[in-house]
Amino acid sequence: MGPLVSNGTELTVLRHCLPLLGLLLFLCAIGKGQIQATQACSPPPLDVVSAPPLNAVVSRLAFGSCANQSARQPIWDAIVEFDPQVFIWLGDNIYGDNRRPLRLFGVEATIGPWKNTPRFFPSTEVELRRRYQLAKSQPGYGRLRQRTRVIGTWDDHDYGLNDAGKEFGGKNISQRLLLDFLDEPEDSPRRKQAGVYASYVFGPHGQQVKVILLDTRYHRDPLSSDGTILGKSQWEWLEKELYGPETEITIIASSIQVVSNLSATTGPFFYMESWGRFPKERSASTN
Length: 287
Ligand SMILES: *[C@@H]1O[C@H](CO)[C@@H](O)[C@H](O)[C@H]1NC(C)=O
Ligand SMILES: *[C@@H]1O[C@H](CO)[C@@H](O)[C@H](O)[C@H]1NC(C)=O
Ligand SMILES: *[C@@H]1O[C@H](CO)[C@@H](O)[C@H](O)[C@H]1NC(C)=O
What we know:
The chain is α/β, with parallel strands linked by helices and 287 residues long. The N terminus is likely disordered.
């Protein structure tokens, strides 16, 4: 999927990363509220000179995802020009895994009925860290970080492996590296929890925006299991977040598609990852 703020040219996107379908925001207007930094993690301190004051009314948020750290990323110019107060990474913030060529036949068939080799494989920790460094050294992103509060969650490719869920062995390493990338403080509780879900409250009393970032990877049961996406601990946390102190606007971000049920029409040939593939979990999310 591409970033919301786009000048039409830029982030190199992975083909299956469909436009905006994947990032899902529910806007729930909820009554009046008082402040409260939420328990999961208060926003990290900024190592920047001109960050907006945290109690300013937040009216400009930008979202982005699917950023290829090895490609040029001129999209940042447009994003910086929009001057968001908050920028939210929705996942595939880097491409941390590796893709083999499509091969239908042979000892290394990666697709089709004779597939015998996985199409994707993970990187080492050293390599993942190197890719995050590449992403962080993109000059346009550097400019954004100087003026904008950057927060985020992950999707599969920065989690470490295409379409991966809870079974992925490198997830704790990936969590540390993502949180390093996001400048999460060393002593943040988010570094100790299982998964990278988090929530933030911006703005003064009476004009607050809450941003809830889900983790759709760390606890996710296998595709087709009709199991859980968020896992028990994250569901409990989410419930507390939603029933906690009210805010004027609540934004919930998911790295995979919430509304779409596209796989119902493209399957059995091709499946997209989405909440629609976990019907029980999806109906729980709308209750
Ligand atoms: C990222 O960009 C590089 C350089 O253009 C390209 O070789 C690579 O295939 C891209 N990776 C993805 C996942 O699109
Ligand atoms: C990953 O971290 C969690 C705590 O967040 C811990 O319970 C688990 O054992 C760790 N898993 C591995 C494979 O290190
Ligand atoms: C998705 O579509 C299929 C086939 O039309 C349907 O059986 C299923 O209930 C739908 N799932 C959701 C979550 O809407």
